[in-house]
Amino acid sequence: MAIERTFSIIKPDAVRRNLVGQIIAKFEENGLRPIALKKIHMTRAQAEGFYAVHKERPFFGELVEQMIASPVIVQVLEGENAILKNREIMGATNPANAAEGTIRKLFALSVGENSVHGSDAPETAAQEIKYFFKDEELVG
Ligand code: GDP
Ligand code: MG
């Protein structure tokens, strides 16, 4: 299987509740390694640009407000099959549908405040990594 890189956000709801370590532990236990990681407080423009694909959705305004409410951890995770594996570790978008043991099942508060973001495909992973990190910040 190929070694891939994917982009992850630990969202404000989880950072506020001091869940950063427990969430990163889930990634590490499942063979994903953080190769770049920083804490940022996203600007409105950054959040709107990041989620531009959802801008026509009814939840867009709420999503942006939630993402800029307080700081997040952005990171790049590396490992075998990292993109799909990260999505599996995260669980379904709506925690009500998330499998046992997944981050969203364990920690999400609601479909909006669902604790983590993860890239959904190789193209979006590459775009999202570039959106927040310079090449030289990736230390594989
Ligand atoms: P993801 O890839 O699993 O994060 O889900 P999507 O790409 O479909 O949606 C992006 C984010 O928008 C989700 O993680 C949620 O935070 C939020 N979101 C998606 N659907 C809904 C919804 O129906 N209501 C609300 N309030 N937020 C939503
Ligand atoms: Mg998505």
From TrEMBL:
It catalyses: a 2'-deoxyribonucleoside 5'-diphosphate + ATP = a 2'-deoxyribonucleoside 5'-triphosphate + ADP; a ribonucleoside 5'-diphosphate + ATP = a ribonucleoside 5'-triphosphate + ADP. It is found in: Cytoplasm. It comes from the Bacteria. This is Nucleoside diphosphate kinase. The gene is ndk. Major role in the synthesis of nucleoside triphosphates other than ATP. The ATP gamma phosphate is transferred to the NDP beta phosphate via a ping-pong mechanism, using a phosphorylated active-site intermediate. Its EC number is 2.7.4.6. One of its GO terms (cellular component) is cytoplasm. Its cofactor is Mg(2+). The active site is at H117 (pros-phosphohistidine intermediate). ATP binds at K11, F59, R87, T93, R104, N114. It is an enzyme of class 2 (transferase).
